[in-house]
């Protein structure tokens, strides 16, 4: 689901649909409570709580959809929320793993980007990096 390149991580289906259901359900409940609640204090309070849950579900869904890494035309693309980075495979100096995050460094030792180690399909990306003789530390 949501593949982007020849080698790509993807968004898990089950958590995505669970978050989508939470978003739809909480926003529907909030609207119904505000419309049918008749202005009672408890209905307004419950509607606000449902709206907060809906906003949190929207943030989680945004993070799930934008957290990806893929290889396309010999370039590693990494993205999380609104931060994107890319580096050609032949310019990667090393890749290190710490706290479930792969940090990609260029040949001069500067951080080129990060990848979540828990992503579905991260093994395919790591295999593509290994095929290009990228050192892992």
Q: Mind explaining what this structure looks like?
A:
There is one protein chain. The protein has three helices and seven strands. The chain has a four-stranded antiparallel sheet with strand order 1-2-3-4. Strands 5-6-7 form a three-stranded antiparallel sheet, with no helix packed on it. The model has no long low-confidence stretch (mean pLDDT 88). 44% of the residues lie in helices and 28% in strands. The relative contact order is 0.16. A hairpin with a 4-residue loop joins strand 6 and strand 7 (111-116). The chain is α+β, with helices and mostly antiparallel strands and 137 residues long. It has helices at 13-36, 41-66, 122-131, and strands at 7-8, 68-72, 75-80, 83-88, 92-98, 101-106, 111-116. The chain starts with 6 loop residues before the first strand and ends in a 6-residue tail after the last helix.
Amino-to-carboxy terminus distance: 30 Å
Structural class: alpha+beta
Order of helices and strands: EHHEEEEEEH
Q: How many distinct helices?
A: 3
Unreliable residue stretches: none
Report the C-alpha radius of gyration, rounded.
20 Å
| Strand neighbour order, sheet with most strands | 1-2-3-4
Characterize the main sheet.
4 strands, antiparallel
Q: How would the global form be characterised?
A: elongated
Strand portion: 25-35%
Number of strands: 7
Average predicted confidence as pLDDT: 88
In percent, how helical is the residue content?
A: 40-55%
Quick structural summary:
The chain is α+β, with helices and mostly antiparallel strands and 137 residues long. It has 3 helices and 7 strands, in the order E-H-H-E-E-E-E-E-E-H.
